[in-house]
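User: I'm putting together a small comparison set for a docking exercise, and I want a reference complex before I start. The sequence is below, and the ligand is geranylgeranyl diphosphate. Could you produce the 3D structure with the ligand included, as structure tokens?
Assistant: Of course. I'll restate your input first, then give the structure tokens for the complex.
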Amino acid sequence: MTSIQHISQPVSEELDLCRQRFDSFMTYNNVLLNEVLQRVASRKGKMMRPLLTLLSAKLLGEIGENTILAALTFEFFHTASLIHDDIVDESGVRRGETSVNEAYNNKVAVLVGDFILANSLDTASQVNDPRLVAILSKTAKHLADGELLQLHNIENRELSTSVYFEIIKRKTAALFAACAEAGTMSVTNQSADIERLRQFGEIAGICFQIRDDIFDYVSGSEIGKPTGNDLREGKVTLPLLHALNVTNDAQMLHLVHMVKEGRADNSHIATLVKFAVNHGGIEHAKQTMIHYAELAHQLLNNYPDSPVRQALHDYLDYVISRSH
Ligand code: GRG
């Protein structure tokens, strides 16, 4: 697997610039706000979304100020959504460190998330293109909608693969799609190119979430979450859905209902994880990602071979085989 550093090579200077400009926004003349912003800025993630914006732009043109602003818009948005997500999930850990809600409290985390979200809007408004604000608002609605669909899905007994795909398209893939779309739009007005890269981003996002969901069934991954964590929260994802679909095992179905009702203990969770693994759940999830990745590679084949096109190929391969 190619490393993120290698994939970033065609846009490494621009990605560094994004990091610097991200940091320069994360200071403020308010003691508490500044403290939390600094804390968030010091624990940066993999920058997968700005990388996608920059590569999409460079595939079709020259990266300019509007591309950088688009990349920052969505990285701020992503950062805010993670802070809010940790409140929703009552999670104490983010990027291997104590989450904002755990280190402070929910009130601080909601408000700092809001502030960073407002920063995202502020950044988008600096681009003289109403389409960027439109993409951002649509994406924000998709994320909130996806999270609520997931919440509702935890509480009911339905176990549907199509609902699973709806959730991951909205809560994760919509943002990847927006990043690629906005990057492309910053360098061209060709709607066919913008749509093609949007689709590429959406597929990358679907694969990203499936990969994330596989981690829940594999011990020793570098993601920093214990096995069965999602399941403990009542989230039944692709590996287990597949195992339940192919076996129709009534006993396992009963265990899943117990999980959803909050009546399961660690041994029930471990039994379900083992069941999903033993019935090809992980293999099925991997094959699903490979199927999607092929569609994405075909989209790229509309463009002549170049280091940037290769980097986008590698980006997708990284997403489906990453270990964190
Ligand atoms: C409108 C701000 C706002 C929030 C909307 C809470 C929420 C509602 C949405 C949360 C969506 C969410 C966090 C989905 C999970 C996606 C995911 C797997 C994120 C992890 O991404 P990485 O691994 O993170 O790229 P790093 O740490 O590398 O940046």
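The domain at 4-321 is CATH 1.10.600.10 (Farnesyl Diphosphate Synthase). The mean pLDDT is 95.
User: Thanks, that's exactly what I needed.
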